[in-house]
């Protein structure tokens, strides 16, 4: 009653949070996928409900006060007469609950399926991320139980007063915000198994007659290079150059080139292509969608730019066509 202009402001948001939660989980688990145009359809209910409420938002304050008085009179956010929107408050709540339940179970199923198929190595690499998502999903399902209980009349929230049940129903969002403040790197999503440091640990020892100083120098560059590739995934840039990487690592292009030859027996372009190929292999192992991509799409999404470049790289590095190489990797 003190702030009538906020009446109904949160109503469209109830249609917005379930799809956002689902897409948040989706892109955490599959960060290599891009947002598709058809995915905007997830937000259609929010948009339609928001549009129908615009006349109410821009209307006189008396209409808002009247709406608040009805809520207070009937002591309910669900069972009271209102002509503000096309659907009655009860029907709107039913639609919101259906949306929340559907997206919650879709999200839970997607998470369970990913963990089941990911394998031990991918799980170990992403243990913190996957455990966090599982905990968040558990709280969301508990919150869903309280929401359904309230809507069906199983529990009462002490009329319209705030209660600890309200707090629990918002704990999922609070947990996620707090967790990301502590571990912001989790927003990078799942890291694939090949996109980690590939140098032997402990650090390789100098062989007889090998220059220890040179080994230490190039090993340090290689470690920084792999960390940069793993964290930033700059190898996905088809225009990536040796000069760009050298500048990012604060080394000379010549030192960078010598490091890849010395540590991996690979030229810098071949080193970059080995990461791109590993990226495709790991995506195909954990994401069935990637197994159905054409060679052109695989080349585009991995930074090669063209099918011919991808095929040339697999021929040079593994003496196989790209199609045969990826087929062999999936059979392992």
TrEMBL record:
Keywords: Membrane, Transmembrane, Transmembrane helix. The keyword tRNA-binding does not apply. The chain crosses the membrane at residues 6-28, 40-58, 93-116, 128-153, 173-196. InterPro entries: HTH_AraC. The keyword Repressor does not apply. Residues 219-328 form the HTH araC/xylS-type domain. This is HTH araC/xylS-type domain-containing protein.
């Amino acid at each position: 009653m003190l702030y009538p202009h906020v009446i109904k402001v949160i109503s469209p948001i109830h249609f917005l949070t379930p799809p956002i939660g689902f897409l948040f989980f989706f892109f955490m688990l599959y960060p290599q996928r891009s947002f598709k145009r058809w995915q905007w359809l997830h937000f259609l209910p929010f948009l339609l409900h928001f549009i129908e409420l615009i006349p109410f938002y821009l209307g006189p304050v008396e209409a808002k006060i009247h709406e608040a008085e009805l809520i207070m009179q009937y002591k309910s956010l669900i069972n009271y007469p209102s002509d503000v929107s096309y659907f009655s408050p009860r029907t709107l709540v039913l639609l919101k609950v259906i949306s929340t339940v559907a997206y919650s179970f879709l999200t839970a199923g997607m998470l369970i399926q990913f963990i089941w198929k990911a394998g031990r190595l991918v799980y170990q690499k992403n243990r913190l991320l996957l455990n966090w998502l599982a905990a968040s999903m558990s709280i969301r399902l508990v919150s869903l139980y309280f929401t359904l209980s309230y809507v069906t009349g199983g529990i009462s929230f002490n009329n319209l007063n705030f209660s600890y049940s309200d707090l629990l129903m918002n704990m999922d969002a609070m947990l996620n915000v707090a967790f990301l403040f502590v571990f912001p790197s989790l927003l990078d999503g799942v890291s694939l198994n090949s996109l980690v440091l590939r140098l032997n640990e402990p650090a390789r020892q100098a062989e007889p007659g090998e220059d220890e100083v040179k080994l230490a120098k190039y090993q340090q560059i290689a470690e920084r290079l792999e960390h940069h590739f793993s964290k930033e995934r700059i190898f996905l840039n088809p225009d990536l150059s040796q000069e760009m990487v050298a500048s990012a690592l604060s080394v000379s292009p010549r030192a960078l080139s010598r490091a890849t030859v010395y540590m991996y027996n690979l030229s810098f372009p071949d080193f970059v292509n080995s990461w791109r190929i590993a990226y495709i292999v790991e995506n195909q192992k954990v994401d069935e969608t990637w197994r159905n991509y054409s060679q052109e799409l695989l080349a585009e999404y991995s930074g090669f730019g063209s099918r011919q470049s991808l095929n040339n790289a697999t021929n040079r590095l593994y003496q196989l066509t790209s199609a045969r190489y990826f087929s062999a990797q999936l059979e392992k």
